[in-house]
């Protein structure tokens, strides 16, 4: 018989069959026996058994399953044994035609066949059934040894008949390490599934029923097959772990569907599987962590979003989760959004592209890459993508990328290719390591308009290229370390004129080259360190706003290695404008010997030609910056400017020469900011206070503090900190309870404080809660904290007297 299509899915729980479905067969083997099934094992071993040894299938809660083994008390590789064993049960199909669906959980590294045969057919141990008597529903099912779930749609012609449903497992001694078959949670139904509507729970500790799922697989199957008739909320019990390979979720519903953590405690976890959305609509996952399983090979992505053949995914939100991947597996990504459609979509919202996607409050760790968003070839960008308050890296060196000796590839904290309307803000990217040609904090290629691309309030630090001990390993490629690497699309691939690039309130530091143990200083390759590289597109509307950023770079003291705090250029000499104001840019590279012709240390490098030969050069505005080159010497420049084919590149060693030669930076300074202690680059040089110029586009700093009427340069408003950096801060009264759960009460100094605000910061310095404090308040209560990840936090109380800090808290 013709094989029927096998779709990875789930078994619908018995509670859903009350009206539209009838259960023709339901067996979870929880009695510790084979139940209504008959085993045909013959005199051979291995044989079918039931019990605890093989574990429980993921769809329904329990502890036992049917499995093939040499005994009822053990399960594992067969060590060279071979055999063919059968398990069957007779099923009567109702006379009225209906949707017949078979669902089951299984795992197998041998060949597991699913068959229907006449009730007169008696299988023989050691012999695989053969046509024409056999109706083969699916052949040679294998899951790689991990549990997965399947569903098979059966022919309507079975109505009014009785058939023998049979599972046959076979293996050869040539595969000595193969894990034999495990079968669990078998359900055969007649009738259509019921559409979801309203509120449900996902709780393995509660019985399955009309309003409770026991697995993500169950919930996904219901959405895939029946959809929704109203908005849906699925509350996932806090602290529970779901170990299952969840099927792809299509979710083409028109109603919003939200999966969210319920209750206080740790986020629920999905282990060994991932969330894979294909052409899905109106879905939110809020508070579901991803953790790897014990398998040698895990999932490529924690959350994957892609377009289907005829539609993109849209209105998707992934938030409040920790995503932990397998760093020993190539190409892993915490988030993987892709779309390989080849049709042109045009500049507006289109049904073919992924659109309106939000990633919020995530932590991604132990992965080769953090976030990877890539659209198809040509002018087919994804549309309206936002990444907000995401932490890439867990604070330990090399937690993103390729930290192990002998391994290497490009590594990206965030990677974007072809997006129209990309907004990346309030993120921390750290601990990225590469061993080939690039270690990059945030990379964006072919940014497309007409919507602007925004990179704001991000911290990028600890981005490292580790040169391997083997000097031949990718020696022909340049070794690149870049904080922000931003490239607008050229005219040939741009959707419409005008795609501005806005980069403000970013802090970039700790970009470095290092050596693996035993590695020699590189002498046969070039190396580059760029704090920010911005390449404007080839259209008249290509524009860059670069404001209030703090960038420090330092090349190693090795010949052939160069560095630039800010490099900006254009793909077309006739187009592209840039406004560079209120930035703090430093090059801290020590003396290098020998200095080669290609070794250049610079603060800024401008490659946007002038529209006229002498200043003012109107296509570039640079002013009110602090530009610092700490070491003078050969091939060291405060700035370089490419003025066009006729004039070529002009280099200026000091600020005064730069101002005179280009007309740029007439009000800029060259003062050492003398950063204070701690990871934040906060200046303590009082002469830099109020050195900026007002910008309507930037009204707050990296931490959300309102910019002054005359703002400060760099990512932070100095406020009281610049003159009182060494003054001890008073400590608040003890907050309670500690550890806190959903609420936290904090005593305040009352009238002595004045009106201010209370902020809760995570261990990485990100503000996760903020609340105004009235002038005469004596205590402030923060609520709704149960959704925050467990870990260490800090409190910050700010008022007219400046910030005051408590000791560290625990959640």
TrEMBL record:
Keywords: Signal
Domain of life from the UniProt record: Bacteria
Signal peptide: 1-20
Coiled coil: none
Transmembrane segments: none
Keyword flag Signal: yes
The protein's name in its UniProt record: T9SS type A sorting domain-containing protein
């Amino acid at each position: 018989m013709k094989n029927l299509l096998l779709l990875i899915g789930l078994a619908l729980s018995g509670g859903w069959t009350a009206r539209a479905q009838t259960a023709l067969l339901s067996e979870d083997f929880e009695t510790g026996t084979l139940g209504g099934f008959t085993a045909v094992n013959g005199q051979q071993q291995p044989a079918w058994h039931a019990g605890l040894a093989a574990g429980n299938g993921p769809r329904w809660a329990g502890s036992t399953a049917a499995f093939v083994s040499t005994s009822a008390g053990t399960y594992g590789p067969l060590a060279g044994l071979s055999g063919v064993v059968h398990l069957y049960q007779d099923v009567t199909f109702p006379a009225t035609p209906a949707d017949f669906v078979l669902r089951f959980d299984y795992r197998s590294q041998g060949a597991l066949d699913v068959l229907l045969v006449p009730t007169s057919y008696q299988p023989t141990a050691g012999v695989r059934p053969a046509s024409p008597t056999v109706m083969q529903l699916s052949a040679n099912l294998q899951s790689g040894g991990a549990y997965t779930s399947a569903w098979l749609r059966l022919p309507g012609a079975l109505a009014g008949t009785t058939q023998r449903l049979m599972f046959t497992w076979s293996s050869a001694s040539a595969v000595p390490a193969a894990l034999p078959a495990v079968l669990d949670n078998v359900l055969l139904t007649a009738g259509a599934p019921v559409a979801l509507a309203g509120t449900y729970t996902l709780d393995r500790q509660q019985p399955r029923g009309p309003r409770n799922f026991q697995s993500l697989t169950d919930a996904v199957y219901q959405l895939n097959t029946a959809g929704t008739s109203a908005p849906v909320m699925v509350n996932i019990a806090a602290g529970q772990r779901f170990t299952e390979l969840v099927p792809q979720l299509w979710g083409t519903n028109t109603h919003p569907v939200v999966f969210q953590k319920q209750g206080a405690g740790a986020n629920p976890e999905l282990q060994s599987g991932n969330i894979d959305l294909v052409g899905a609509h109106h879905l939110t996952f809020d508070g579901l962590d991803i953790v790897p399983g014990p398998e040698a090979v895990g999932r490529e992505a924690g959350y994957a979003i892609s377009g289907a053949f005829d539609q993109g995914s849209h209105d998707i939100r992934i938030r409040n989760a920790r995503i932990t991947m397998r760093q020993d597996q190539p190409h892993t990504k915490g988030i993987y959004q892709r779309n390989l459609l080849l049709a042109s979509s045009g500049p507006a919202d289109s049904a073919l592209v992924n659109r309106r996607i939000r990633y919020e409050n995530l932590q991604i760790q132990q992965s080769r890459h953090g976030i990877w968003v890539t659209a198809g070839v040509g002018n087919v960008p994804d549309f309206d993508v936002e990444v907000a308050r995401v932490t890439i890296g867990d604070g330990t060196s090399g937690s993103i990328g390729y930290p192990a000796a002998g391994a290497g590839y490009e590594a990206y904290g965030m990677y974007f290719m072809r997006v129209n309307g990309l907004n990346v803000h309030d993120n921390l990217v750290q601990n990225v390591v590469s061993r080939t040609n690039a270690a990059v904090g945030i990379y964006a290629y072919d940014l497309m308009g007409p919507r602007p691309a925004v990179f704001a309030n991000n911290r990028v630090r600890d981005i490292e290229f580790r040169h391997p001990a083997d000097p031949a390993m990718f020696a022909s490629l340049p070794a690149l370390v870049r904080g922000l690497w931003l490239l607008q699309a050229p005219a040939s691939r741009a959707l419409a004129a005008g795609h501005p690039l806005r980069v403000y309130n970013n802090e970039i530091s700790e970009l470095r080259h290092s050596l693996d143990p035993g590695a020699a200083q590189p002498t046969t390759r070039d190396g580059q360190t760029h704090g920010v590289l911005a390449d404007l597109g080839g259209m008249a509307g290509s524009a860059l706003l670069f404001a209030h950023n703090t960038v420090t770079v330092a090349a190693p003291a090795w010949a052939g290695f160069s560095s630039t705090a800010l490099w900006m250029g254009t793909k077309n000499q006739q187009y592209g404008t840039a406004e560079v104001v209120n930035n703090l840019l430093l090059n801290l590279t020590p003396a290098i010997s020998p200095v080669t012709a290609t070794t250049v240390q610079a603060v800024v490098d401008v490659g946007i030609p002038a529209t006229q030969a002498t200043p003012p050069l109107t296509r570039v505005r640079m002013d009110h910056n602090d530009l610092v080159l700490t070491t003078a010497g050969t091939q060291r420049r405060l700035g370089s400017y490419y003025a066009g084919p006729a004039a070529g590149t002009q280099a200026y060693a000091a600020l005064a020469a730069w101002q005179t030669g280009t007309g740029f930076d007439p009000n800029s300074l060259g003062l050492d900011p003398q950063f204070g202690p701690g990871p934040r680059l906060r200046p303590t040089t009082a002469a830099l206070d109020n050195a900026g110029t007002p910008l309507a586009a930037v009204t707050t700093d990296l931490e959300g503090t309102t910019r002054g009427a005359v703002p400060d340069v760099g990512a932070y408003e100095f406020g009281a900190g610049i003159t009182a950096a060494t003054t001890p801060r008073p400590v608040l009264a003890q907050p309670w309870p500690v550890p806190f759960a959903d609420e936290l009460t904090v005593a305040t100094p009352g009238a002595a404080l004045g009106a201010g605000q209370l902020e809760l910061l995570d261990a990485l310095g990100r503000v996760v809660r903020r609340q105004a404090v009235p002038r005469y308040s004596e205590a402030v209560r923060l609520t709704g904290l149960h959704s925050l990840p467990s870990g260490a936090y800090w409190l910050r109380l700010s008022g007219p007297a400046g910030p005051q800090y408590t000791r560290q808290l625990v959640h």
